[in-house]
TrEMBL record:
It comes from Lederbergia citrisecunda. This is AraC family transcriptional regulator. It comes from the Bacteria. Keywords: DNA-binding, Transcription, Transcription regulation. Residues 8-106 form the HTH araC/xylS-type domain.
Length: 283
């Protein structure tokens, strides 16, 4: 359960420094994790980004202070990280549905986001189908885009990238060059640094990149390969959540830090019988 304790340590660090300037890198360090893997784990478990959690918690505390004290709104704005009363009021209304002035006059309801406590269920009521395999390095070809992990930009940009490659016929090209080393279209997440990832839409192929395609070598790894059954994208998202919240804490494995893969077959993505896989390099 050290993994759970590390994650909770990072959340406690956020709470202890909620009024300070802090980076995702500093927070992830508390969990002995890279920025990318911490941010993704946090988002999967909580359905919000680290930045959203910090913003919601600050505005929750600001609202409490607003109705309990006579502190000036401009001073509260600065205290909770806003450059001006206008920016504070806009963010406050977005979360609470009323302005700071209305809140002080008790003219509406406030929305409270409480301090997170990570509780992981290890009951395993629904079994997960997976296997551990070892593979030599292999090559993929495809297209890539770089995304920042700051403020969940990668979570917004990657779905748009998939729409683009479908519209431009790139997926059809990838199907044609797949050599069967690993069948299917791949979503490859390749961390470049703690802040930036390359995301690839690709396929396994030993051919040299052409038609605007580039090459990437996937290193030799021990892989945990999970079966995913059901319509996209919900089935894939639910599988990731179970892996992060149930499998990793009890498995004794850790992410190896190299690219992981989502493998999409030619099944109908809307079908309840759609089959896909998640490949995670582990150590």
């Amino acid at each position: 359960m050290a993994w759970v304790e590390s994650l909770q340590k990072a959340i406690d660090y956020i709470e202890d420094h909620l009024l300070d300037d802090m980076t995702i890198e500093q927070i992830a360090l508390q969990a002995n994790s890279s920025q990318f893997h911490f941010h993704r784990t946090f988002s999967i478990l909580t359905d919000m980004t680290v930045g959203e959690y910090i913003r919601r918690r600050r505005l929750t505390l600001a609202a409490q202070e607003l109705i309990r004290t006579n502190e000036k709104i401009i001073d509260l704005a600065l205290k909770y990280g806003y450059d001006s009363p206008e920016a504070f009021s806009k963010a406050f209304r977005r979360q609470h549905g009323i302005s700071p002035t209305e809140a002080r006059k008790k003219m509406g309801k406030l929305k409270s986001y409480n301090r997170l406590v990570i509780q992981v269920s290890l009951k395993g009521a629904e079994p997960m189908q997976y296997k551990i395999v070892e593979r030599e390095s292999f090559q993929v070809v495809g297209v890539k885009e770089s995304f920042s992990c700051e403020n969940g930009e990668n979570l917004i940009g990657i779905p748009k990238m998939w729409e683009k490659v479908h519209q431009e016929g790139i997926v059809d090209t990838l199907v044609k060059v797949n050599d069967g080393t690993l069948k299917g279209i791949l979503g490859v997440c390749d961390p470049l640094s703690n802040r930036v990832i390359n995301y690839w839409v690709a396929t396994a192929s030993e051919s040299e990149g052409s038609n605007g395609l580039e090459n990437l070598t996937i290193p030799a790894s021990k892989w945990s390969v999970f079966e995913v059954h059901g319509p996209m994208p919900d089935a894939m998202q639910n599988a990731w959540k179970k892996i992060v919240s149930e499998w990793f804490p009890s498995s004794g494995y850790a992410h190896a830090g190299t690219p992981d893969l989502e493998v999409y077959t030619d099944d109908n993505p809307s079908s309840p019988d759609c089959y896909s896989e998640i490949w995670i390099p582990v150590k």
